[in-house]
Amino acid sequence: MSPAPLRFERVTRWYGPVAGVLEVSFTLEPGVTGLLGPNGAGKSTILHLAAGLIRPGMGRVEVFGRPPFLSGSARARLGLLPETQSFPPGVTGRTFLRTCLLLSGVPGREARRRADALLEEVGLARAADRKAAGYSQGMKQRLKLAQALGHDPDLLLLDEPLTGLDPLARREVIAKVHELGERGKAILVSSHVLHEVEAMTSRVILLNQGRILAWGEIPEIRALLKDQPIRVLVRGRDSRRLASEMARWPSVGGFRLNGDSLEVEAWDGEAFFEALGGLGRSDWAGLEEVRILDENLEALFDYLVG
Amino acid sequence: MPVFERGYLELREDERPGRPSWTVLPQEEWASWLRNRKLLILWFVCIVPHLVLLVRTFMALALVGLDGGPARGRGPSPAFLGDPESMAFYAKTLLEDSLLPVLVFLAATAIRTVSLDRKSGALELYFTRPLSPWRYILGRWTGAAMAAASVTALPVLLVWLTGALAAPDWGFLKETLWIPGRILLQGAFFASVLGICAAALSSMSSSVRTGQILWVGFLAVMHLVFSGGLRRFLHEEWPAQFSPWAILQRVGEAILGVDPEVPLSLSWCAALSLLLVVLSLLVLRRNLKPLEVVG
Asked: In a mutagenesis test of the A interface, which of B115, B129, B289 is the best target, namely the one with the most A β-carbons within 10 Å?
């Protein structure tokens, strides 16, 4: 069995008296995974540990079975898109990209050819010989993306990848992240903008104060939150009658009538949907729409972080 | 403008990366320095002693002649112009006149490298590559040493080469063929020691200004330490000019094969130079990785 692209095993990292991450354990599988948390939650620390920039105080970090802090061959298989927006002064986009490729071990001639192709790919061919420090925010982000993907890594660590991009470019990057995930690359996307991550993946790691709150598919995590009722929107032919019918169900905790739709709070999702299925078969109900309102990242995050 | 116009560029199996190339670091450093007009002007100011040497070479060849005969007509005396066929002619510029220029030039170049990498986040990107900290150090050391060499040994070599080309016959070349090798060796020694010190100080802060202040402070403290604390161990008649530079100068004199003007023990000076290099390497390594982040 081949080793996982990224594995954290009870990893703790302190910065003096401040804990960056505490007892963090997870295994990253191929595909896209979102890393979510408020500022100071430990997202950057996790990315820096995974990229081999810092050493865990306790526990073990492995990239394809090797510790990235010590192993060059582990780092050769990863690409990091950092959050920082600055570039070395005086260095052009082309030089920067070529340097990154050469430092990744791509041979000289191939690095030159590939740098040109990548610049064209991310739409920076015309600005290739301008100083990178003078690029706009969007251009810098494109250049960073190019350097992260340049050596064709198997593990991608993306820190706020959509920052500074225009809406069209955002859509393209999201589509690209999807595509790379489908190709079997393992991708860890850190962000505090929930809908951006949700657009890329349904698999997330939720962090707060250096600890993992939850990890997995969003619906699975939601299902585990038994202390929070599921909010379901139900729209039918006669919402008032629907409400009076549902009031008798033990799985329903409460509801609110919003015009022609009904917002139901169900404590036992399984029993609620079973009963709703029975209702759907009756002629009078005429169910037009049933939608879970809080099976999304934002609701999940609210429940977990508060 | 579309970001991935033509799809993702995958590497073919035969294109898989091999060993990272650290030589790109000094190359990239030099490319950025050459694009900096202010730095080029500073470089020309720093090689003024060498330009003076060049003028002296021409005058010595044209007015005095290589046989040391009398000058044709009125002009500067042969003693003033010197003999371009002797190492002593080059040694003064290499060992004494280059002191201030090389320190100033390093403050403008090598002192900036690691701190700018840190400040700009490039260090973060470099260390996510298979590049080891030691290879990074080697790259930055080479860059810094080349900066030091560019205002010490290299212009002197050019002066010698110009002299060889301007000489009336091949006699000059035959007589002085041993000189460039020694100049190169001495230049490599100076540039290596000064370069690694500058790179080590550069790694201590992400602010260029702080690095430059540290550089001046380092030279001052080293001067005090050497001229005070260590004097009793090295020589009884202690010269007033004893400084880190004097230590390098003593080793430099030995490499060039000229009579020592610095009355210090050669072996002690060589050992202290080596110690300086080792300490600088340790400081650099300690300051590079892990990179501290909070978030």
From this structure: B129
